[in-house]
Recover the amino acids of this structure.
């Protein structure tokens, strides 16, 4: 016949396990709008009897309750990889579009004041000079057109050079950000490994690492693989 205290212990283990499961559910609800958070699930496991049943065993041989065996992170590695791939592609397209837009505004083409327009005026000036080689006015107009063309090309060169310098500064800042993010990922890897080896749950740290890896994908197109 099973002990009354055994039944109380079984009921108590159920209450404790269900309370832990509710805490996990509460964590999910509390972080419903938290960026990078992944839902978790409390996995319950039956607790086996204290001793194996035999001829002289007074217990029933049934289990003595339940417990939370683990807290599973409900992430999808394939969706995470797809997200990082799309983030990398979108960041590349955005950076390329931004650079080309700035270059287009620097060169000011096509426009009435761009290099192409000045070239057209310059060649038209040569046409006038060829038609009237003795005309002083035509030669002066040609010289003015040539000076305007050279000035426009020089201004475009200086603008592109300035943009290049700005890109170098942005690249240096990007390198710093990449190194900082990679260092944070390495630190999280050490913490996750230590907690996992000791039997603890590192789900929140794994979420943080996933956020950093996604950021790194957006910065340099990096990929990651869990081992």
């Amino acid at each position: 016949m099973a002990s009354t205290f055994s039944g109380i212990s079984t009921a108590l283990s159920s209450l404790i396990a269900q309370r832990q499961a509710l805490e996990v559910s509460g964590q999910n609800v509390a972080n419903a709008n938290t960026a990078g958070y992944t839902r978790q699930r409390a996995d319950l496991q039956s607790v086996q009897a204290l001793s194996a049943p035999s001829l002289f065993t007074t217990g029933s041989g049934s289990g003595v309750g339940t417990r939370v065996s683990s807290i599973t992170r409900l992430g999808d590695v394939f969706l995470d990889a797809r997200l990082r791939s799309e983030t990398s592609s979108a960041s590349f397209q955005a950076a390329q579009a931004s650079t080309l837009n700035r270059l287009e505004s620097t060169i000011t083409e096509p426009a009435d004041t761009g290099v192409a327009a000045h070239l057209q005026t310059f060649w038209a000036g040569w046409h006038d000079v060829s038609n009237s080689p003795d005309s002083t006015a035509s030669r002066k107009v040609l010289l003015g057109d040539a000076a305007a063309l050279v000035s426009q090309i020089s201004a475009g060169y200086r603008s592109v050079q300035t943009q290049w310098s700005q890109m170098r500064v942005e690249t240096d800042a990007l390198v710093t950000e990449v190194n900082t993010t990679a260092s944070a990922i390495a630190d999280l890897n050490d913490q996750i490994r230590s907690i996992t080896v000791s039997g603890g749950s590192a789900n929140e740290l794994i979420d943080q690492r996933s956020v950093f890896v996604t950021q790194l994908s957006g910065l340099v197109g990096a990929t990651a693989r869990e081992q």
In short: The mean pLDDT is 86. The beta strands are 40-46, 66-73. Residues 79-220 form one domain.
